[in-house]
Amino acid sequence: MMIGGMRVLVVEDDVRMAGAIRRGLRAEGFIVDVAGRGEDAFGMVLASEYDVAVLDVMLPGEDGVQTCRRLRADRVWLPVIMLTARDAVSDRVRALNAGADDYLVKPFSLDELVARLRALVRRAPVERPAVLAVGGLRLDPSTRQVWREGTEIELSAREFGLLEAFMRRPGQVLTQLQLLDAAWDLGYRQRSNVVEVYVRYLREKIDRPFGLAGLETVRGVGYRLRRDGGG
């Protein structure tokens, strides 16, 4: 399970549909990777940590149902929601029997997809509370809101992803690589100081205006959020 914002693998061979889903989920704060084939998706799941997968039934080569069945046979219990243009009961039964956790028929509402993805992740083995709280800091992943002692703080998507990563592991030192994984997708071209820059942005918003120091630098290792949130 990822330490920061939810990472979603979208498996869809229709480039326009995949792009629309990716843009919509990113706007909701998800970290999104895309695959166009079931075989590629299987390898990506084994190589990376995802919180949930959106898997189209109709794919070239190995279809979505076969991919889901292969994941389960390999004891990969990643939550999976299947997408299909067909609404026959037999199709739903086939997908669910292959190990899918949920089923959504095209065309669908992005709001419904987002709600179903969040519900699937909440039911996963690793606890993901609806609202995170560390000291006086509160973060709501569903509404993308952050408060310090009752004062709402406006954050960019990257800042929010980093703060969510810190708040899911208070007191734990997170490396630059872990923080990149938490807030940037696989297509990002890494810059050496991008994490340092965004941690500085966060401090300017969640710490300094309140006279606090919640985000700490652990020289040579990474960064951590104090267990008391900074006071």
Strand content: 15-25%
What's the alpha carbon Rg, rounded to whole Å? 19 Å
- Which parts are unreliable, with pLDDT below 50 for 5 consecutive residues or more? none
Question: Helical segment tally?
Answer: 8
What's the β-strand tally?
A: 11
Shape: elongated
Q: Considering DSSP H and I runs of 4 or more, what fraction of the residues is helical?
A: 25-40%
Structural class: alpha/beta
Spatial strand order of the main sheet: 2-1-3-4-5
The helix/strand series, from N terminus to C terminus, equals: EHEHEHEHEHEEEEHHHEE
Mean pLDDT, all residues: 86
Q: Give the CA-CA distance, first to last residue.
A: 29 Å
Task: Give a short account of the largest sheet.
Answer: 5 strands, parallel
